[in-house]
Amino acid sequence: MSKLSEKKYAITFWIALWLAQSFLMAGGNELEFYLIKNIAIVGLQFLVVQVNFKVLFPFFFLKKTYLLYIMLSILLVYIVFSSSFIFIDLIFEFYYPRFDGGAQIGLISDFWAILSGSSFYSLALVCSLVYKLLKTNQDKEATNQELQKRLENDEHNNPITIKEGHKTHQLLAKDIHFIKGLKEYVVWHTKNGNIVALQTLNTIEAEYKEMGFLRVHKSYIVNMNHVSSFKSNNLNVQGELIPIGRVFKKNVIEFLSDSKS
To answer: Per the record's keyword annotation, is Transmembrane helix included, yes or no (predicted)?
Structure first.
């Protein structure tokens, strides 16, 4: 989501909250009164959320100083609630110049008044915490997936070195179709032709398994990314039918099943 889209979403959310909260508080009566009152309340809820987003969550919660986070959160809600009456009066005085709310600057000490009156701001704080936890977890998963994707791309883009006599070939994994064993030699079947090298399938199997190469027969290792079809006893790799050995069949089926899931 772009920055502009995020801002539009946030504005829409806060307007929707203002309207919904006003309707719920009004209960069908004196809607105008609660619409005006909730300008102050929603504004202070927004303040609580932003302080949590910008200060409390990154500097205390993420650093695992949970007790300090809780104490500062309670203090924040208490201060906001205590000052809310002044802001509500100011809003009403703006809309109704003759209005005199008479709110006093000071802290409230009545426990039950604090508990009931601060619920709007406590809820805003809790919801913002839940949102940040979900968002942080989502961002971590996205980052991990991106890193995994980059690692996989790096693996497939790293050239494989093959020595053919006095000649050295550098090939990408994606350009290799399969490898056939011929006793002490192997034949690399690639998109540009075959390469005969003095190697063993056991060595190749161990070295390139993580790049999608799978032993499917005592004489064959296949780049599974090039498998176009599968039957009970063979694989179709770029038009070549590669036999599946009985002892390797289970691994082939598991690999193909995992790649589809």
So the answer is: yes
- Return the pLDDT at 152: 62
In the chain the first and final C-alpha atoms are separated, in Å, by 27
- Please report the pLDDT score of residue 21 as a whole number: 94
Q: Name the residue with higher pLDDT: 179 or 210.
A: 179
| Averaged pLDDT, 3-19 | 90
Q: What is the pLDDT of residue 181?
A: 94
- CA-CA distance, 164 to 198, in Å (whole number)? 7
**Do 179 and 205 form a contact (C-beta atoms < 8 A)?**
no
99 pLDDT band, cuts 50/70/90, is low
Residue 232 and residue 199 in contact, taking contact as beta carbons nearer than 8 Å: no
Could you please report the per-residue DSSP string of the chain? --HHHHHHHHHHHHHHHHHHHHHHHHTTS-HHHHHHHHHHHHHHHHHHHHHIIIIIIIIIITTT-HHHHHHHHHHHHHHHHHHHHHHHHHHHHHHSTT----PPPS----HHHHHHHTHHHHHHHHHHHHHHHHHHHHHHHHHHHHHHHHHHHHHHHSPEEEEETTEEEEE-GGGEEEEEEETTEEEEEETTEEEEES--HHHHHHHHGGGTEEEEETTEEEEGGGEEEE-SSEEEETTEEEE--GGGHHHHHHHHHHHH-
Q: Could you give the CA distance from residue 24 to residue 29 in angstroms, rounded to a whole number?
A: 10
What ranges do the domains of the chain cover?
3-154, 159-260
| Bridge partners of residue 197, in order along the sequence | 186
From 7-11, 58-62, 115-119, 165-169, the region with the lowest mean pLDDT: 115-119
